[in-house]
Amino acid sequence: MSSFSSTNVAGKRKSALWQIRSVASRESPKVSSSSSQQQKKKKKYGCSSCLGIFDPFKILQQMTMASGNTSCQQNKKRISLPANNKKRLVAIKGGLGLPGFNLTAHQEARLAQKRSAAIDKQIERDSHRQRRKAQVLVASFKRKCEGTNLLLEGLSKHSSSDITDDPIAMLQQRPPGATDGNASMTPDAVSKVRNAVLKELKRMLGEIRWSCGIDVDSEIHVRDLDRIAVLQMGCRDIHRKIEARLGEKPDNSGDRLDEELAAEVKSLWETPLWLAECYSRTASRSKAFDDIILNLLPRASELNYVPTASDLSLITNLPSNFPHVISNSYEIDSTLINIINQDNIPCCAPIRKRLSPYLSDVTSALVLVNLADYTHLSPEDSQSDPATTNGLYYDLLHFESYARYLNRILGGQGNNTKVLVLLWNRSGFIERLKTGRYPFEKYFPDFQPGKDKHLRFIGEKFVAAWQKGGGRTKIEIRAGEPGDAEVVKWMGNTVKQTLLDQGLCELGVFKPRMAERSGNWYGRR
Q1: Residue 500, in any domain of the structure
Q2: Which residues are annotated as a binding site for Mg(2+)?
Q3: Per-residue pLDDT tens digits for 349-391
Q4: Which amino acid positions bind Mg(2+), per UniProt (predicted)?
């Protein structure tokens, strides 16, 4: 029987085409020779005993390149359509050419071409991923968590980044014109410092007001007269005075921070009830509180105040001056995606769909857990169900849902991702335990009191919630403060393990918005 010419066959041996040499050969199935009509049909439809047909398994065996090999910029094993006459291609079933399947080989070749193009595209995506940098998805159980500000402050202080377009690195830069001595004595410099002080005080009061559920424009149903009176004095009177100061137009002589307002703020922070509330709301625990309330505020309230270089550097690192922007360009090889302003990101499915494709296989999650939320002062807790009043109970449910969400976006990434849980505000937690009306074991009967057993117990609860939610990635729990150098180093080293040989300065920080406990949580649809 005739076969294809040698020129048609020789070009296909190197492109994963296998040959059927003869219908009557040893490799071919046996065919009955009693009928001469079959021979006539084969001649009529141009059937040949040597057909080139694509073998997908053989081409996959010949492709030895790894998906993450960036040295292979293109797929050299690309498959093209056969160069011979496509009309003469027929399929073989049982060694016989059947007219009804004369397009099978052509379709197989087209599918092979699509597979090859898909492999090229995958290799290109993998090369982009190799150039990406380790990312950290920062999350908390409250809409406004000062732990995130402390974390960014710690990154800005302890990072070794020299990248000029990095907003975290820009926080370290000295303001223009600043020297080791006194800075410029122009009214602009004085106004800049005083306005920054007022904005930071406003941020602190606003955080306490939001966490306590206090509205500055409406009256409140009084339960605890002493506590509410103190909160009203701080969150209403001082808040309104700060709003009035910020709304005033600057005079020619420069803004002057009222000494009466400074004395009132300092007196407020010396009130025991207010200080205890600050411990629970975390507004007074940051470095900014010590620098602003105890140092910069009294000096800035003086009439002849002259800002120094350290003052200008201090206001640059205040949490209220952190860059609150959301990047409009989600490039696949972007080194840092700034999603810091939680108010600009709605808690909805479309934004999750936009962000999920850009979370690479080196994305880890850092969950900030404020320990001061897990004790109660309300007398009504003794008469209600602990499951409906305990903050830890709700956060564990949210963390279980968070495990499901992370599995959806990071579940197929293998061992490259980790979930870090940071138990912070330990001092506030201890303070609340001392001033609390009810012991911790009231809400958790399985808790065994003892020294340093609270943190271990809470950590075990989060591990159990993670496993209950089906978490497949690794989880690591640590107690510490977000701004400490040891915590920042721990976060960087943990993320870098088994990932990339990159420094801490190459960490990208994601901060999605999480809804309130009573609303739709970020991990739910």
Answers
A1: yes
A2: 320
A3: 444 444 455 455 556 777 888 887 776 544 444 445 444 456 7
A4: 320
